[in-house]
Amino acid sequence: MSLALENVGVAFGGFQALAGVTLAVEPGQVMGLIGPNGAGKTTCVNTLTGFQRPTTGRVRLEGRDVSALAAHGFRREGVARTFQAGRLFGGLDVLDNLACTGVGLGQRRAAAEHEASDILGWMGISDLESRPAAGLPYTDERRVAIARALMGAPRYLLLDEPAAGMSEKEAADLADLIRRIASERGIGCLLIEHNVGLVLSVCAHVVVLDGGRVIEAGDRAAILASDAVREAYFGANVEVA
Ligand SMILES: Nc1ncnc2c1ncn2[C@@H]1O[C@H](COP(=O)(O)OP(=O)(O)OP(=O)(O)O)[C@@H](O)[C@H]1O
């Protein structure tokens, strides 16, 4: 069981954003995806969620070829994501932001509200229920976007830079939440982050992209020991403590 890219290439005109990328997100685990600016991380997430079609290769969900599925099809099949910007409905309160997603997934309104309330409670942010989304502080907006992605019990959750702009304490709390999403809800998570320390603290397995290619994959120790990773981030011949 996995959500996987199989030898995927993505070209934008003549520009090859991804080339021969193979990776798999497994249920109940948090996988990290790191790499310098422009490495192709967001393009990977877009391809794994139907926002971008692969030019070559395949996207597989539990073994099925879903390369041609549209984004709403991925969501209905249990693949949820968050965006770099929260993308909440500013005019609605927090509960309705979640409930709308449930209704969009085919739930009745009352069931959607019930699930929304449960998720906010599970995350410890029930106090936000009736707050208008437009007025939320940045960190709360991020947390609500994650809560909304949990509607409909997805099997996979792809998080695109969820800790951007957070303090160290807020990022540590977020790390705890992501661990709980995987361990308590059994969801397979893919975490894209510029905060490499956060990724290494949360993820058992990390994939490193550079120039649209996978240059390293492995556990924390393998990533820290990799010359290819050091070179991609800091240039050749730089010692990193
Ligand atoms: N729609 C597009 N059209 C043309 N080029 C694109 C498009 N989307 C992404 N690219 C290019 O593809 C490359 C990979 O972009 P992507 O956003 O996936 O990288 P990233 O690793 O997420 O970068 P960052 O860390 O800066 O967000 C970049 O050079 C980017 O400019």
TrEMBL record:
Which SMART domains did the record assign?
AAA (SM00382)
> Which parts of the sequence belong to the ABC transporter domain?
3-236
Q: Give this protein's Gene Ontology molecular function annotations.
A: ATP binding
Look up the domain of life of the source: Bacteria
Answer whether the UniProt record assigns the keyword Transport to this protein: yes
Q: Does the keyword Nucleotide-binding apply?
A: yes
Alphabetically sorted, this entry's keywords are: ATP-binding, Nucleotide-binding, Transport
Task: Identify this protein by name.
Answer: ABC transporter ATP-binding protein
The organism is Rhodobacter flavimaris
Lineage start? Bacteria, Pseudomonadati, Pseudomonadota, Alphaproteobacteria, Rhodobacterales
